[in-house]
Amino acid sequence: MGVTDDSHRAELVTRVTRDASGVTVAVEGELDLGTSPRLVAQAAVIDDQPGRQLTVDLSGVGFCDSAGISALLHLRQQCDHAGWVLRVVGPQPAVRRVLVDFTGLGTYLNIA
User: Would the pTM count as exceeding 0.70?
Assistant: First the structure.
């Protein structure tokens, strides 16, 4: 019998702050199939006051797979529906390569 070691899995930690312009979600860990639902759950902070901004700070994320990309696309759709603007800031080089170079989503996700 084998033993599965999940100790290598990084948890996703999010910190949500609000101000007059909108909401910032700072993310730390890996954005993957196991953790991306936590980021999507943060979309609950989007209210019905159009003209605000959801900023997703990825400076603490070292890995992003297709599930993470899907989560970010979901957030963009939530923002569009509510009249908010999604802005993704601080992606590390490996994550930036995935989001900008490989997928071409840099402009769509307003990556700064």
Answer: yes
Q: Is the pLDDT of residue 2 over 70?
A: no
Burial of 90 (0-12, 13-18, 19+ CB in 10 A): middle
pLDDT score, position 48: 81
Considering the domain boundaries, does residue 78 fall inside one? yes
91 inside domain: yes
How many helices (H) and strands (E) in the chain? 3, 4
Asked whether residue 3 is assigned to any structural domain, the reply reads no
Q: What's the domain count of the chain?
A: 1
- DSSP 8-class letter at 45: G
CATH number, residue 30: 3.30.750.24
In a domain, 111, yes or no: no
What pLDDT sits at residue 17? 94
Quote the pLDDT of residue 45: 83
Q: Which residues contact 81 (CB under 8 A, 6 or more apart)?
A: none
Contact, 111 vs 88, CB < 8 A?
yes
